[in-house]
């Protein structure tokens, strides 16, 4: 008799199901997941290949394994999928009625389709951890290479802001896995890898990610110290972490700190043409734009409202020359383009994502997922991580994988 789920990477098959025609179609659905965490970041515009991979994986999966599509989902997965599709369908309507970013919509639609059949699978924790370790190790090599090649902040074909968010996502999982690991040598190895990823994040010189990490990591360690009474490990990690922060700030982020100080001084002098100043102008203008269409938003026509504000003298020429495609704040950007209704749907999706990770039976994955969501929310205060395809793929794939690797805890009702 068939089990409710078939296992991916580490599954048990009967003798009659041991042929390549049986297990290969079961492995193919994971190709987009593995690619999103590894090769996608090494290839210029590598995120463009994910939708094609999802379509091919879906076709093969449906052709060979149609019987699994008839299985029922539990309430946790079902509600999360409903929230993702609700957000997707709303953004589709905005796109066709008012125009919007096709890149953003394509990434969200890809994830909605991918999660719809990925949610029927089961991933063993061992293989998810291995994927994260491979991803983290590869990203460290890539970051260090780009940093040395460009003599400072990483550049080239990589946008450092979403890239830093992806690094933070992998860091959050590996760091919490290291804390919960019982084997000493594995704990030390994972901790060293998380240190290397943290330094890689500093190399991106992305303030919207580095600063929340400096706050969140000590909080996690203090909580763990209080709960588990692992004084020796927690105190040693705290000391190493603060040593790294100080050394990293001095050697890697010193120029960025000086630039930030200069921007703050310029703002106090009335000059808002720097990175921070332009953000302040955008946020102020966004509130006035949103008030004109508060429920359904502007879609792509928000730029027309911004030009009207410039003609009336409400925004500066520097902001118009910058011509922002988004408002460097996920919630403000969502409110302006999709209205209060779109923002409410987006917040509902985040709530269901939190419910997904909090229902996981693995403490390491549960806390790692919680830190992941917290970092995305913090990044959303100065950027739009749910707009960049790479960070969209990482977020949704990881939230679903966390639950699939360690399903619902007993007694948890969501």
TrEMBL record:
Pfam families the record matches: Wzy_C (PF04932)
Record-linked InterPro entries: O-antigen_ligase-rel_domated, WaaL-like
Membrane topology, as annotated: Multi-pass membrane protein
Keywords carried by this UniProt record: Ligase, Membrane, Transmembrane, Transmembrane helix
Keyword Membrane: yes
Compartments (UniProt record): Membrane
Record has Ligase as a keyword: yes
Molecular functions (GO terms): ligase activity
Stretches that traverse the bilayer: 23-43, 49-68, 80-97, 103-123, 130-149, 161-179, 188-203, 209-226, 233-252, 339-357, 364-382, 388-406
Domain O-antigen ligase-related, first and last residues per copy: 193-347
Main localization of the protein described in the UniProt heading: membrane
Record protein name field: O-antigen ligase family protein
């Amino acid at each position: 008799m068939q089990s409710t789920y078939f296992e991916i990477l580490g599954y048990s098959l009967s003798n009659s199901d041991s042929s390549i025609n049986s297990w290969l179609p079961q492995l193919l659905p994971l190709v987009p997941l593995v690619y999103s965490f590894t090769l996608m970041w090494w290839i210029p515009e590598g995120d463009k290949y994910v939708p094609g991979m999802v379509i091919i994986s879906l076709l093969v999966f449906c052709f060979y394994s149609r019987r699994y599509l008839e299985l029922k989902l539990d309430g946790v997965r079902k509600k999360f999928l409903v929230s993702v599709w609700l957000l997707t369908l709303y953004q589709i309507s905005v796109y066709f009625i008012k125009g919007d970013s096709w890149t953003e919509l394509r990434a969200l639609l890809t994830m909605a389709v991918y999660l719809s059949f990925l949610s029927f699978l089961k991933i063993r924790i061992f293989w998810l951890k291995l994927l994260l370790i491979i991803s983290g190790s590869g990203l460290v090599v890539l970051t260090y290479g780009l940093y040395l090649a460009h003599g400072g902040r990483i550049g080239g074909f990589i946008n450092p802001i979403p890239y830093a968010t992806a690094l933070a996502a992998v860091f959050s999982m590996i760091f919490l896995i290291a804390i919960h690991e019982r084997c000493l040598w594995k704990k030390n190895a994972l901790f060293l890898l998380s240190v290397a990823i943290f330094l890689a994040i500093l190399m991106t010189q992305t303030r919207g990610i580095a600063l929340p990490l400096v706050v969140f990591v000590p909080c996690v360690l203090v909580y763990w110290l209080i709960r588990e009474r692992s004084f020796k490990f927690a105190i040693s990690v705290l000391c190493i972490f603060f040593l790294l922060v100080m050394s990293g700030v001095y050697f890697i982020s010193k120029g960025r700190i000086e630039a930030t100080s200069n921007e703050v001084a310029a703002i106090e002098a009335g000059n808002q043409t720097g990175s921070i100043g332009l953000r302040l102008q955008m946020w102020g203008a966004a509130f006035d734009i949103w008030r004109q269409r508060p429920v359904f938003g502007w879609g792509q026509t928000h730029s027309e409202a911004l030009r009207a504000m410039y003609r009336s003298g409400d925004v500066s020429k520097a902001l118009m020359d910058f011509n922002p495609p988004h408002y460097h704040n996920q919630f403000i950007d969502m409110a302006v383009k999709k209205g209060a209704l779109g923002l409410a749907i987006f917040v509902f999706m985040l709530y269901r994502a939190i419910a997904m990770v909090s229902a996981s039976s693995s403490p390491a994955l549960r806390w790692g997922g919680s830190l992941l969501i917290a970092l995305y929310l913090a990044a959303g205060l100065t950027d739009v991580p749910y707009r960049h395809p790479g960070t969209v793929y990482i977020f949704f794939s990881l939230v679903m994988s966390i639950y699939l690797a360690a399903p619902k805890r007993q007694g948890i009702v969501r």
